[in-house]
Write a structure and sequence with these properties.
alpha+beta, 4-stranded antiparallel sheet, single chain
Length: 223
């Protein structure tokens, strides 16, 4: 509430790279508003509140560092050439948001804010005939049904559980803080958690709450 497009959609779309690559917390979040989008936008003009966020995640295990860009307000990323329509030469982009994950061997494209129909850009029809076996438990009747199932002891915990959803939400909010401050936010961690002193500074620097909203002085300590 009050977090702009990122706060509205971020937990749906950033869920894709966060979950697939187990990114954890970023080292730094900053605004990348100096990027040139003339080629991607064409004749379209971005909204006044258009913004680009850059999340920088550290390497972990066999995974190298990862950069995640979030575009909103009409801005679009630089699309890989393999996404271009052979007839028009322009990217096959459905225009309803989504996520693009660009790797060394292929590109994954999810055409909506939720990862309901992702596909690989190259050789997808051929690859999908020989997909690996499913190893991740599937949701039982949607998120609400899963919560009820966990309460009843039918499953250990829902897929959208606090262990995962809380850090994901924190990552989204860190982007909003970078936007509001217009400064890069260096993240201080202690193991797999955010440092308490870092959270205190974020809490103090967030500014006064909006009209009719009261901020508790002990929210972070209580958490």
């Amino acid at each position: 509430f009050g977090l702009g497009g990122l706060g509205d959609i971020g937990c749906h779309t950033l869920d894709i790279p966060m979950y697939a690559m187990q990114l954890g917390y970023p080292e730094r979040v900053s605004m990348a508003d100096d990027m040139d989008f003339a080629q991607e936008m064409g004749a379209k003009k971005p909204k006044d509140e258009a913004a680009t966020y850059l999340y920088e995640f550290p390497a972990a295990g066999n995974r190298p560092p990862v950069k995640v860009y979030w575009y909103e307000g009409g801005r679009l990323p630089k699309f890989p050439e393999e996404m271009n329509d052979p007839q028009t030469g322009k990217p096959k982009f459905e225009g309803a948001g989504g996520c693009i994950m660009i790797g060394d061997k292929n590109t994954l494209y999810s055409p909506s804010m939720r990862p309901t129909s992702p596909s690989l850009v190259k050789n997808w029809q051929e690859l999908r005939r020989n997909l690996p076996e499913k190893t991740i438990p599937r949701a039982i009747g949607g998120p609400v049904r899963e919560v009820i199932g966990a309460i009843r002891g039918e499953i250990e915990k829902p897929g959208s559980n606090f262990d995962y959803a809380v850090p994901l939400t924190e990552v989204v909010i860190l982007g909003t803080i970078a936007n509001r401050s217009q400064k890069g936010v260096g993240i201080q961690r202690q193991g797999n958690e955010l440092q308490g002193s870092f959270l205190e500074r974020i809490h103090q620097g967030a500014g006064p709450p909006g009209l009719g909203v009261r901020r508790g002085s002990d929210l972070i300590r209580a958490a």
